[in-house]
Amino acid sequence: MKIFSGTSNEPLAKKIAEGLRLTLSPLEIHVFPDGEKRIRVLDEVVEENCIVIQSTSPNVNENYIELFFIVDALKRSGAKSVIAVIPYLGYQRQDHVFREGEAVSIEVMIKTLQASGVDKIITFDLHSIKIPEFFAIPIAHLSALPLFAEKIRVISEEGALSGASPILISPDMGGIRRIKLLSELLGDMPYASIEKDRNLKTGEIKIKNIHVAPNINLKGRFAFIVDDMIASGGTIDKAVNFLKKKGLAKVWIFATHAIFAENAKLILKKIKAEKIYVTNSVFIPKEKQFPKLQILSIARIVIENL
Ligand code: R5P
Q1: Of all protein residues, whose CA lies closest to atom 5 belonging to ligand 1?
Q2: Which residue of 21, 22, 241, 284 lies most exposed, with the fewest beta carbons within 10 A?
Q3: Ligand 1: residues whose CB is within 6 Å?
């Protein structure tokens, strides 16, 4: 088995390689002055099973192109099979036509990925469970929820000592399946879902309501907001303010993919939450990190599923 990394998340690729007692195989990735890339495999891969680690996080287009070329280069060099570990699959939020005339971008990316010759995909916490249906090749859709459950269990046990009950919160109705799964992992911990509305043209977010079982009082509880990703930080920011107004005592945030686009750091630094837990599915450079941020590693989960 040989393991290769694109340029988007080499620290995660190194962790996975170390866990497999391998070292990353070398690739030559040359960028021409006009931005085109040339990829060359610098290892012997004939009849080898190869793994490529590449998150298609920002810069999404660059990272996808690089991945297509790495897979093509491996196949042309004689690789027996190529597994693409794409911890964050870019364009996943464009999984259907929201407004007449739009492209279904994720479907185009998946078709291109398959055309490049990849044999299997490993990815994490997709925005919709429908996305695997776009693939004609095997896909392992993994989740960071077990990592989150471990942390939430410890924090809620501490809260119980001061009499605070826990509650899981989905910041939008689309996350209800995720929150139900997490509730099961945590022995049926109660949950609620915020009803959010996003203006498809401007991106503006408005919170409309919270759906919670009638016998549950939100006041004084420890809240665990769980989302698939933080991009601009807008959803999380609005959700935390809303919950604080509802009288929840403390809020923690859990999100698998730390996209941290635009001014996300400025928003997240000021958020009234105890801690923000994310994973290393997307590489977070030092300049995008802040004291409340905690990064959990998905390397072990990837290794267990190779
Ligand atoms: C939306 O449906 C997703 O689950 C996330 O809540 C959303 O994509 C986060 O984006 P942002 O941080 O830009 O609000």
Answers
A1: 229
A2: 21
A3: 93, 127, 171-172, 174-175, 227-235
**Tokens 């490049």 correspond to what residue?**
116
**Fold of the domain spanning 2-142:** Rossmann fold (3.40.50)
Cα(207) to ligand 1 centroid in Å equals: 13
How far is ligand 1, taken at its centre, from the CA of residue 233, in Å? 7
Please state which CATH class domain 145-296 belongs to: alpha beta
CA distance 209 to 245: 12
Q: CA-CA-CA-CA torsion for 125, 61, 86, 153, nearest 10 degrees?
A: -30
Q: How confident is the model at residue 2 (pLDDT cuts 50, 70, 90)?
A: very high
The per-residue pLDDT for range 89-117, each reduced to its tens digit, is: 999 999 999 999 999 999 999 999 999 99
Known catalytic residues are 196
Q: Is 145-296 in the same CATH topology as 2-142?
A: yes
From 93, 169, 204, 229, give the residue whose CB has the most ligand 1 atoms within 8 Å, as the site to mutate: 229
pLDDT bin (cut points 50, 70, 90) of residue 262 is: confident
* CB-CB contact of 65 with 1 (8 Å): no
| pLDDT digits 0-9 by tens, 160-210 | 889 999 999 999 999 999 999 999 999 999 999 999 888 888 888 899 899
Structural contact between residues 185 and 205, judged by C-beta atoms closer than 8 angstroms: no
Structure token digits, residue 95: 């999984």
Contact between 76 and 106 (Cβ < 8 Å): no
Centre of ligand 1 from the C-alpha of residue 232, in Å: 8
Domain ranges of the chain: 2-142, 145-296
